[in-house]
Amino acid sequence: MKNDAIMVTGATGTLGREVLERARRTGLPVRALSRRAVLPDDVGVTWYTGDLAKGVGLDEAFAGVRTIIHCATDIRRFKRDIPAFHHLLESAKRAGVEHVVNVSIVGTDRIPYPYYRIKLEGERLLAASGIGWTNLRATQFPGLLDTVFTVLSKLPVVLVPTRTVCQPVDPGEVADRLVELALDGPAGRVPDLAGPEVHTVDRLARTWLRAAGKRRLVLPVFVPGKAAAGFRSGALTVPDRAVGRRTWEEYLAEKVAR
């Protein structure tokens, strides 16, 4: 079987859906991996059911694949991500996959936050795998902040960490870059991708509340600990890589304001 297909893992997630749509435009055979059976209603996409964490269904899914764009993650049960990465790499080797494109997080090597440590370990596994690889770190997605503020706003006072900044980037723009990298050869760690503007978290919260039509007091609070210190250090941002175009305000106007 000729290895020319692109496989997207985590294809039903926020980023995976965006990547899948752009991969279809390449004209190459496109496959999508999901833990649950998906109705094959996407023209040009072949869906496979497989479980990365258990290593089930991967050999069939990866046979004939040249490049994997790895978007699968589970922030709620993130300890599964490392066994999943092991299974992905082992199966990719057996299938003769030539290139794995991985998406990670800006600051993952500077903030001792448990989920970030897992992402960093995944980067190390990929680099040592013997498979051609590319690793892209991106800043936070607006949808994540939206979810956080939705939860926090259920209380009369919205508590946010003091002196913390972030740089939201549109997942569609990250998807554009991932597919571009997939079409090129393995490049190792590539320059980070960040949104167009750096914001303090308290400002993000206030603008979100206005867009959502909610009246709440936003109270910045000092959070102790090494992870919180890492967040305060500015490690979530890369101002010199502000290459994204879609702003936080544009996201609010489209997704939050009603």
From TrEMBL:
InterPro entries: HCF244-like, NAD(P)-bd_dom, NAD(P)-bd_dom_sf
Keyword Membrane: no
Protein name (Swiss-Prot/TrEMBL): NAD(P)H-binding protein
Domain NAD(P)-binding: 10-140
Spans traversing the lipid bilayer: none
Protein species of origin: Streptomyces xantholiticus
UniProt keywords, alphabetically: Photosynthesis, Photosystem II
Cross-referenced Gene3D superfamilies: NAD(P)-binding Rossmann-like Domain (3.40.50.720)
PANTHER family, alphabetized: PROTEIN HIGH CHLOROPHYLL FLUORESCENCE PHENOTYPE 244, CHLOROPLASTIC, PTHR47128
